[in-house]
Amino acid sequence: MASALKNLSAYNDTDVPNAEEMTFGLVVAEWNTHITHALYEGCYNTLVKHGAKPENIYTMQVPGSFELTAGARILNGQQNVDAVICLGCVIKGETSHDEYINQAVAIGLTNLGLTTGKPHIFGLITTNNEQQALDRAGGKHGNKGVESAITAIRMAFLKKTPIKGKEKRAIGF
Ligand code: RBF
């Protein structure tokens, strides 16, 4: 399974830029709260662990995952953050609601990333059942909130760092 082979929660601390000067927006969905709060804990603690100041982390709760993009848009209007991380959990049910919500969030966050020029991190767990979600919120497949935090720091660092030419880089983790 792809996530078993690439569990980014077990990342190398030394590869992560310092987040001391960075600001973050966290938008968290209230549906499946036991999952999304575990994602939030992992995400928030990882940002702080890498230097982010608590006063520079703005948290907004929205009703469901469908509202994540609207929440991110509102947060952007109120705070000039370096990156926005959206955390939610959509579990497949008897109907195809999950496909509509997941697609809307993926497209919405892509659009927000392109129109604002700021990283918008897709921290949405999209699973077939609750166990798969638990496995990814601090269980056997790590915590996608932690991974979202690392991705946000790395992307914010890229945005803050002017790219240079003539530099051959090692590719890979
Ligand atoms: N929101 C979630 O974050 N996770 C879900 O698993 C979820 N399931 C839903 C299932 C149905 C049938 C509906 C109508 C909504 C669901 N929502 C879920 C809420 C959705 O993200 C949104 O808050 C509402 O549709 C209001 O816009």
Could you tell me the CATH topology label. Rossmann fold
The named CATH superfamily: Lumazine/riboflavin synthase
Estimate the strand proportion. 15-25%
Distance between the termini: 19 Å
Q: Percent range for helical residues?
A: 40-55%
Query: Biggest β-sheet: count, sense, barrel?
Result: 4 strands, parallel
Radius of gyration: 16 Å
Give the tally of β-strands.
Answer: 6
Mean residue pLDDT: 93
Number of discrete helical segments: 6
Molecular shape: globular
Strand arrangement, major sheet:
2-1-3-4
Would you identify the regions where 5 or more consecutive residues have pLDDT less than 50? 1-5
Order of helices and strands: HEHEHEHEHEEH
* Ligand types: riboflavin
Quickly give the CATH architecture: 3-Layer(aba) Sandwich
User: Which structural class should the secondary elements be placed in?
Assistant: alpha/beta
